[in-house]
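Budget justification aside, the reviewers requested a transparent look at the raw inputs and outputs of the sequence design task funded under Objective 1. We therefore reproduce one unedited record. The lines immediately below are the structure tokens for a 140-residue chain.
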């Protein structure tokens, strides 16, 4: 894959922090998710459209390295790079940086394409629809 990097700005709100004004660790996962969603949207892939067809992406694996804390009111940049594109999954390399370039967090996220089935049916991994796979392939 190439190293095309998508960047998404985020500001740290009070609700993102603990009593000491430091971002609660689980909120980094939210920041990373939002950036991946906006990356897909920038490519013309609207997840709600695919959900109508019972196709979605679920996070299967997360490796998160918290290096330095983000604090209330920090302006951050969250990056998305496709590390590996498979037929049924994508591995992302992501970072959270302060706008001054300080690396705060890095992550590797594996997301699998799934058929959500009908209520009560099992969720199962499936190959990505060709329309999605081709867009992701061209974007990298």
């Amino acid at each position: 894959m190439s190293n095309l990097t998508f960047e998404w700005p985020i500001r740290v709100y009070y609700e993102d922090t603990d009593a000491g004004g430091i971002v609660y660790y689980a909120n980094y996962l939210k920041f990373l998710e939002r950036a991946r969603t906006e990356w897909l949207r920038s490519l013309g892939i609207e997840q709600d459209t695919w959900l109508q067809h019972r196709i979605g992406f679920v996070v299967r694996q997360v490796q998160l390295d918290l290096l330095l804390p983000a604090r209330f009111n920090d302006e951050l940049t969250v990056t998305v790079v496709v590390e590996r594109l498979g037929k049924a999954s994508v591995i992302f390399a992501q970072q959270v940086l302060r706008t001054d370039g300080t690396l705060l967090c890095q992550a590797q996220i594996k997301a699998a394409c799934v058929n959500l089935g009908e209520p009560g049916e099992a969720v199962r991994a499936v190959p990505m629809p060709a329309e999605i796979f081709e867009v992701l392939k061209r974007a990298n």
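The chain has three helices and six strands. The helical segments are 25-42, 47-51, 130-138. Computational costs for records of this kind are itemized in the attached budget.
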